[in-house]
TrEMBL record:
Pfam families: ECH_1. CDD domains: crotonase-like. Signal peptide: none annotated. One of its GO terms (molecular function) is catalytic activity. Belongs to the enoyl-CoA hydratase/isomerase family. It comes from the Bacteria. Residues 284-296 have a biased composition (Basic and acidic residues). InterPro entries: ClpP/crotonase-like_dom_sf, Enoyl-CoA_hydra/iso, Enoyl-CoA_hydra_C. NCBIfam families: PRK06210.1. This is Enoyl-CoA hydratase. PANTHER family: ENOYL-COA HYDRATASE, IP11341P-RELATED. Coiled coil: none annotated.
Length: 296
């Protein structure tokens, strides 16, 4: 993969694999949902492979940022309705026996918030249901102009799934979250930008290049240890009193000043050069519930 962004954005997707994985020279792992014929619907062997690639990126010391996107005209339109088709002909009693957890494999989308590495999502087209939950659990989102968003749950006789009732109000506020969840309406990337759901809206042909450029800037110039600690702070501190948060931040600040990253960051600043921060080593993936885990 080249690292100039545009070349990556224009690369052809010829593989039949449901999820693609590649790493740029600057340390960005690009994970692509690749079922364009199904609009990247969540299913068809995608789930296990997706989370396996996320774990691979988290464990790889050469990877500093994870970038998610989709192939074709959609990011992910939610659960594969082909997989759910049998439900329409079953009884309420038998439908109630559906293993909901199996629809997302062994992990929930909030798994992304527990990673040490930043997760950026390039929403290249339509996003709905669990696809939206997945995108919102990433740390920063870019969207293609005109991309369609919808929670859709209320219009399928379902509820707010997979942590979206936890993350959505934190991103857009209670009023907007209530509107989007209760109405299940479709809205465009431009409104998503106004609501704060995405950082930028760019023309579709420029999307992956822009998101990759942003991710590579972080990979080149930000200390991985600092990113790991700040992610933990962001998702945990929202649940804590300000006094406790401040005291915890002081302790973490002291710890950061004892690491070589701090000396390198200051030295690079005064020498007017790019910093050379060390990579993270041993992965720290914890599937056990944390204080910041969403509870619906």
């Amino acid at each position: 993969m080249t690292t100039d962004g545009s070349a990556v954005a224009e690369r052809p997707i010829a593989s039949s694999e449901p999820v693609l994985y590649e790493v740029s020279e600057s340390g960005v792992a690009v994970i692509t949902l690749n079922r364009p014929e199904r609009r990247n619907a969540w299913g068809g062997g995608m789930t296990d492979r997706f989370f396996r690639y996320v774990e691979t990126a988290e464990a790889d010391s050469n990877v500093r940022v994870i970038l998610l996107t989709g192939s074709g005209g959609a990011f992910c339109v939610g659960a594969d309705m082909g997989d759910l088709d049998s439900i329409s002909s079953t009884t309420i009693e038998s439908a109630g026996k559906t293993d909901v957890r199996s629809l997302v494999a062994e992990k929930h989308p909030y798994f992304l918030t527990q990673l040490r590495k930043p997760v950026i999502t390039a929403i290249n087209g339509s996003v709905a249901g669990i696809g939206l939950s997945l995108a919102l659990m990433s740390d920063v989102r870019f969207a293609a102009a005109g991309a369609k968003f919808t929670t859709s749950f209320a219009r399928r006789g379902l509820v707010a799934e997979y942590g979206i009732s936890w993350i959505l109000p934190r991103l857009v506020g209670w009023g907007a979250a209530i509107d989007l969840l209760l109405s299940g309406r479709t809205f465009l990337a431009e409104e998503a930008l106004e609501l704060g759901l995405v950082k930028e809206v760019v023309p579709g042909e420029q999307l992956l290049g822009r998101a990759l450029s942003y991710a590579e800037d972080i990979a080149r110039n930000c200390a991985p240890s600092s990113l790991a600690v700040m992610k933990q702070q962001l998702y945990a501190d929202a649940e804590l009193p300000i006094v406790q948060t401040s005291e915890k931040a002081e302790q973490l600040m002291h710890e950061s000043m004892t690491r070589s990253d701090f000396i390198e960051g200051i030295t690079a600043f005064f020498q007017k050069r790019a910093p050379n921060f060390p990579s993270l080593t041993a992965p720290k993936i914890d599937d056990s519930p944390e204080d910041h885990s969403p509870e619906d």
